[in-house]
Design the sequence.
């Protein structure tokens, strides 16, 4: 699912205004300077790009069922949602 990772990284890089090559799976949104508004934009971008619904509560991101702690966690969560959608 490298295509999923590449697309997620591109969405995050665009919001962070960094080169996608500078983003690793261990990179956190904080390290990229992404605030809560930018994370909401990332979530919207992911939803649009993959035609999925991300369970993300912008008012309480800590209670989200969508792990936003690292880029790798975000990619894994997106892959899980895509798999769920394909099974439905």
Sequence:
């Amino acid at each position: 699912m490298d295509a999923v990772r590449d697309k997620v990284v591109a969405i995050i890089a665009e919001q962070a205004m960094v080169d996608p090559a500078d983003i690793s799976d261990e990179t956190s949104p904080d390290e990229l300077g992404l605030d809560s508004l930018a994370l909401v934009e990332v979530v919207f971008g992911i939803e649009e790009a993959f035609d999925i619904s991300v369970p993300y509560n912008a008012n309480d991101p800590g209670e989200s069922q969508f792990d936003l702690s690292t880029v790798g966690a975000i990619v894994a969560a997106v892959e899980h949602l895509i798999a769920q959608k394909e099974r439905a």
User: Anything to note?
Assistant: Residues 2-87 form a domain with the Non-ribosomal Peptide Synthetase Peptidyl Carrier Protein; Chain A fold (CATH 1.10.1200.10). The radius of gyration is 12 Å. The mean pLDDT is 91. Residues 41 and 87 are 27 Å apart (CA to CA).
